[in-house]
Design brief:
Elements (H helix, E strand, L loop, with lengths): L8 E9 L2 E10 L2 E7 L15 E3 L4 E4 L1 E6 L12 H10 L2 E6 L11 H11 L6 E4 L1 E2 L8 H7 L4 E4 L13 H11 L5 E5 L17 H7 L2 H18 L2 E4 L8 H9 L4 E6 H5 L21 H12 L5 E3 L30 H9 L6 H15 L17 E11 L18 E11 L2 E5 L2 E2 L13 H10 L1
Parallel strand pairs: 1-4, 1-5, 6-7, 7-8, 9-10, 10-11, 11-12, 12-13, 13-14
Antiparallel strand pairs: 1-2, 2-3, 5-15, 15-16, 16-17, 17-18
């Protein structure tokens, strides 16, 4: 079957049906899952049987495509860092069928309706997977929020600390109250980069090439105090709030208390906080720098325990690439290097390599990397589940097979990643987007087939649900 072809059905000995793997055929019609037939062969007399359209993948696992709701594509304005063409190819190679683009670090950022329209124009014809878009909250743009909701943004992101780029300034308490008043009753969601500046004694003589120097500059208390602010706002306004890239386990109890008190609050962590630990970061290895920082191994295990207990809702990449010079690899100065880790292509094997050793099952992968992320951005009626009526977005992969990450196999634009040379468990064989074969064994369909996903305002979604 050629890349770009429309697939009528996928047959496998291992289709993930709920919590179990079983032989099944996934029938596809008009880009959606039509029905799932248990058993490795079509039943006799099935009038839909057309063997020319059937993709038989043997005993490879068939699951819903991943939904990565935290991706910095950086286009327009910083295409030397990344872009829709390269980012979405990397996504397809990783079994990610939907990405949600962050409102920064593009120029302009997605903070007004006009800027959103510019983003859509730039993305047109360049996406190999489906793409939705976050808007941004910055000082003074509260009156832009509702027009962007009506235009289809998935929600909004803000920073409580310097974002790293001047065109996306962080918000004050006054800005947050103004934004919350605009978001009340809309059903939209506000995402928080939850760190606050907290005065800490500095060690002026500390070596900036030692990772510990950078780690000490971003202590857990910065997240704790920021999340205290978030929980208070969430409880006051009852606006959906979401904490992005939680790195510290210390605020988890506070988050649970707020949720028990009625706060509509969710939280994510990332692959790097679950896969890496501070003790193993070499001096000068600035490819490991991100904000908040990678913390110690004890903290990492607490994050895994919280995932197991359902206290963390989802796992994302926070793919945040840059050009090599911004990583200051030659000097190895962590304090000056850009903070961001590229991992969009490798989220599935990164997660599974660690999760499978900690008692997680494939159904947990779907819940944490597909279903919950789709729900966050209002796509759960369309994406993230292997169910009739949902888009036929499938990842076909071998969870037992190992591979080594090599530069030649990396599809995002700049090949800098802390995972280079790492051996992972789980190889993505093929990716199907709305019933079309977009990736197989290192090759892509000739033309990008991804669509823009504009999220209907909440009241429209509720009306649609009632209609069905």
């Amino acid at each position: 079957m050629e890349l770009g072809s429309t697939v009528g059905a996928v047959r496998s000995q291992r289709v993930l049906m709920g919590h179990r793997l079983c032989p099944a055929v996934v029938r596809i019609k008009d880009g959606r899952i039509h029905r799932i037939l248990s058993g490795s062969l079509f039943p006799a007399g099935d009038d839909d049987d057309d063997e020319d359209e059937v993709l038989d993948v043997g005993d490879s696992v068939v699951m819903p495509g991943l939904v990565d709701s935290h991706v910095h594509v950086n286009e327009p304005g910083r295409v030397s860092w990344e872009g829709f063409w390269t980012a979405t190819r990397a996504a397809a190679a990783g079994g990610v069928t939907t990405v949600v683009d962050m409102p920064l670090n593009s120029i302009p950022p997605t903070t007004t309706l006009n800027h959103f329209h510019e983003k859509l124009r730039e993305a047109t014809g360049k996406c190999f997977v489906d793409t939705a878009f976050w808007g941004g909250v910055i000082p003074g743009n509260q009156l832009d929020l509702q027009p962007m909701i009506q235009a289809g943004v998935a929600g909004f992101k803000c920073f409580l600390i310097h974002s790293g780029v001047e065109e996306f300034p962080h918000v004050t308490a006054c800005d947050l109250h103004a934004a919350m008043k605009q978001l009340q009753g809309t059903g939209s969601v506000l995402l928080f980069h939850a760190e606050l500046d907290v005065q800490q004694p500095s060690e002026e003589t500390a070596d900036p090439c030692h990772y510990s120097t950078f780690l000490q500059s971003r202590p857990d208390v910065m997240e704790v105090e920021a999340i205290r602010t978030v929980t208070e706002l969430c409880l006051q306004y009852k606006v959906r709030c979401h904490i992005v890239h939680l790195s510290s386990a210390k605020p988890l109890e506070m988050i649970q208390e707020a949720q028990r008190a009625g706060a509509p609050l969710t939280v994510e962590t990332t692959h790097h906080y679950l896969s890496l630990c501070a003790e193993n970061i070499p001096a000068g290895a600035t490819q490991f720098k991100c904000c908040p920082p990678i913390r110690g191994s004890d903290n990492r295990e607490l994050l895994w325990s919280a995932l197991k207990a359902g206290q963390i809702d989802m796992v994302v990449s926070d793919h945040s690439p840059c050009t090599p010079d911004l990583k200051n690899l030659e000097s190895g100065d962590f304090t000056q290097a850009w903070g961001g880790i590229s991992s969009l292509q490798f989220g599935l094997p990164l997660f599974w390599s660690s999760a499978s050793k900690r008692g997680f099952e494939l159904s947990d992968v779907v819940r944490l990397l597909s279903q919950k992320t789709a729900q966050l951005c209002g796509l759960d009626k369309q994406k993230g589940s292997l169910s009739p009526g949902h888009d036929a977005d499938l990842v076909i992969w071998d969870p037992e097979r190992e591979f080594e990450i090599q530069e030649a196999g990396i599809h995002h634009k700049n090949k800098i990643t802390p995972y280079l040379g790492k051996t992972l468990q789980g190889v993505v064989c093929s990716t199907i987007l709305r019933g079309q074969l977009v990736y197989r064994e290192g090759s892509f369909c000739p033309e990008p087939l991804g669509k823009h996903l504009l999220i209907p305002p909440r009241e429209t979604q509720e009306a649609l649900c009632e209609a069905f």
